[in-house]
Amino acid sequence: MTTSAPNARLGEVTQRIVERSRDTRSRYLDRIAKAAEAGPRRARLGCANQAHGFAACGVSDKAMLRSGAGANLAIVTAYNDMLSAHQPYEGYPEMIRRAARDAGGVAQVAGGVPAMCDGVTQGEAGMELSLFSREVIALSTAVALSHQTFDSSVYLGICDKIVPGLVIGALAFGHLPAIFIPAGPMTSGLPNDQKAKIRQLFAEGKIDRAALLEAEAESYHGPGTCTFYGTANTNQMMMEIMGMHLPGASFVNPNTPMREALTLEAARRAMQITALGNEYTPMGRMLDERAFVNGIAGLHATGGSTNHTLHIVAMAAAGGIKLTWQDFSDLADVVPLLCRVYPNGKADVNHFHAAGGMAFVIRELLSDGLLHRDVETVMGKGLDAYTAEPALGAEGQLVWRTGPQQSGDETVLRGVAKPFHATGGLKLLDGGLGRAVLKTSAVAPERHVIEAPARVFHSQEELQRAFKAGEFTGDMVAVVRFQGPKANGMPELHKLMPPLGVLQDRGHRVALVTDGRLSGASGKVPAAIHVTPEATEGGPIAKVRDGDMVRIDAVTGRLDVLVPADEWDARENATCDLEDSHWGCGRELFAPFRAAVGAADAGATIFG
């Protein structure tokens, strides 16, 4: 493979992150170094403490833990059998225990973390717990590891808030090595573009609920991750390009020989990189500034989820690294868009994987200096290992072979010499209405600038009622506010997409501005999301009135309201009674989270 120095912009952004984070990163590294100094903590626990830790183990595992001769591997699992993506994890602990024993150690399920499905809670009260579930997962991970009996760790989690929460929690124990083990996407079902069309037909009242349910059931039809390129699959891309997966592990389907082989090898590798051997690779040292820049580059190159403008910031902060949305924006200027996966195209992640997948993306970005090559990964030093792909040998063993040198389908995946777009899939907006992000990769270029009168709503249900009443007859920017983290937990607002898509298909120029979220499945309608400051905090979005001209410009990166300055300054902020969003479905328990949460551009986190 040809080598090249990192792109100049990549280097500049990385260096300023290093400078900005110097104090906080140094303190973090000192803390994890101190935690690692004494060696495995288990050996220094009291006898009663140790006995509690292995009381339920089998004879051989108990003997191993008593002697302290082998490594003890923590399994932190987000298994439940309601999430299709996580149902395959049911049998993983036993596989991992078997691999650990073969490697001369022991594996124990250290703890479970909650895993909610945003697909189930869309438009429901539970969605207002969704973002905060990330913090609960981080806290649960810390509880799982707090017994201090482990030498390494593996994490079973895939979906939206689950991987970021696991990373945040794991970084609190950053002296431990860590490997993330995916379960893979479900096989392809009803094509995503057909599903989206059926949703629009239902929104227009042209098909009934039974037809809609049948289409949805054909789309989400078996075990595995949903196949569109939303937050769950963006998580998998990110864990691989940041070196937390085995190479090529992200998009292998569940319940296949290859998936089992990758799972066993991940467990074995987690045992090899402990402080007991010669390849000690603590997670907190491994995930440095370069690794996070690689994650952002992957986000842009693949047109990934807008949720990661929150999650990557929050994850990095857990490791003492300070990221800003400006870092995302500056990297987007130089990282080309290489993928067209729904909602950015018609293909799903199975098609992406078959066309060359992560090995091809990483190879292409490395060849153009758009990734840091010399990072630490769970495979050792350097990202070159991630340009290989796994295969099964004649005896069913896992082997590595040279990855694809060219795309198998250029309608889905392209090289850096012929990208779909010269710049990345996300755009930072700034202006009189605050700061926001817009997923440009899903939006036709002719809709990157929208100027239209505002229609203001305080919930997605209000907008849906207005649509059904036939109130929308022309161009419009829908402003949906009081949806930020302090207001109601910053829910995803996917129920907005079908009606807005219908209006756009009717020939109207429409857009959305909101302090809420739309995640990786935001579609063809331009959407300025994560607006900060949010309305509840007195952000300018709280001043917008029906009829104000709003301009979204994803070319120059502006988000403005075209109201005379004297009139704008004289306006009072609107208010909203949020009582109904603060109780029921457990939401009353999250009042301390709403009170403590930070702004969207700081990761919308309660930590720090």
TrEMBL record:
<feature type="domain" description="Dihydroxy-acid/6-phosphogluconate dehydratase N-terminal">
    <location>
        <begin position="72"/>
        <end position="384"/>
    </location>
</feature>
<comment type="pathway">
    <text>Carbohydrate metabolism; Entner-Doudoroff pathway.</text>
</comment>
<keyword id="KW-0119">Carbohydrate metabolism</keyword>
<protein>
    <recommendedName>
        <fullName>Phosphogluconate dehydratase</fullName>
        <ecNumber>4.2.1.12</ecNumber>
    </recommendedName>
</protein>
<keyword id="KW-0311">Gluconate utilization</keyword>
<dbReference type="GO" id="GO:0004456">
    <property type="term" value="F:phosphogluconate dehydratase activity"/>
</dbReference>
<keyword id="KW-0479">Metal-binding</keyword>
<feature type="binding site">
    <location>
        <position position="159"/>
    </location>
    <ligand>
        <name>[4Fe-4S] cluster</name>
    </ligand>
</feature>
<dbReference type="InterPro" id="IPR020558">
    <property type="entry name" value="DiOHA_6PGluconate_deHydtase_CS"/>
</dbReference>
<dbReference type="InterPro" id="IPR037237">
    <property type="entry name" value="IlvD/EDD_N"/>
</dbReference>
<dbReference type="InterPro" id="IPR000581">
    <property type="entry name" value="ILV_EDD_N"/>
</dbReference>
<feature type="domain" description="Dihydroxy-acid/6-phosphogluconate dehydratase C-terminal">
    <location>
        <begin position="412"/>
        <end position="604"/>
    </location>
</feature>
<dbReference type="GO" id="GO:0051539">
    <property type="term" value="F:4 iron, 4 sulfur cluster binding"/>
</dbReference>
<comment type="similarity">
    <text>Belongs to the IlvD/Edd family.</text>
</comment>
<feature type="binding site">
    <location>
        <position position="226"/>
    </location>
    <ligand>
        <name>[4Fe-4S] cluster</name>
    </ligand>
</feature>
<dbReference type="GO" id="GO:0009255">
    <property type="term" value="P:Entner-Doudoroff pathway through 6-phosphogluconate"/>
</dbReference>
<dbReference type="GO" id="GO:0019521">
    <property type="term" value="P:D-gluconate metabolic process"/>
</dbReference>
<dbReference type="Pfam" id="PF00920">
    <property type="entry name" value="ILVD_EDD_N"/>
</dbReference>
<keyword id="KW-0411">Iron-sulfur</keyword>
<dbReference type="GO" id="GO:0005829">
    <property type="term" value="C:cytosol"/>
</dbReference>
<dbReference type="Pfam" id="PF24877">
    <property type="entry name" value="ILV_EDD_C"/>
</dbReference>
<keyword id="KW-0004">4Fe-4S</keyword>
<keyword id="KW-0456">Lyase</keyword>
<comment type="function">
    <text>Catalyzes the dehydration of 6-phospho-D-gluconate to 2-dehydro-3-deoxy-6-phospho-D-gluconate.</text>
</comment>
<dbReference type="InterPro" id="IPR004786">
    <property type="entry name" value="6-phosphgluc_deHydtase"/>
</dbReference>
<dbReference type="InterPro" id="IPR056740">
    <property type="entry name" value="ILV_EDD_C"/>
</dbReference>
<keyword id="KW-0408">Iron</keyword>
<dbReference type="InterPro" id="IPR042096">
    <property type="entry name" value="Dihydro-acid_dehy_C"/>
</dbReference>
<dbReference type="GO" id="GO:0046872">
    <property type="term" value="F:metal ion binding"/>
</dbReference>
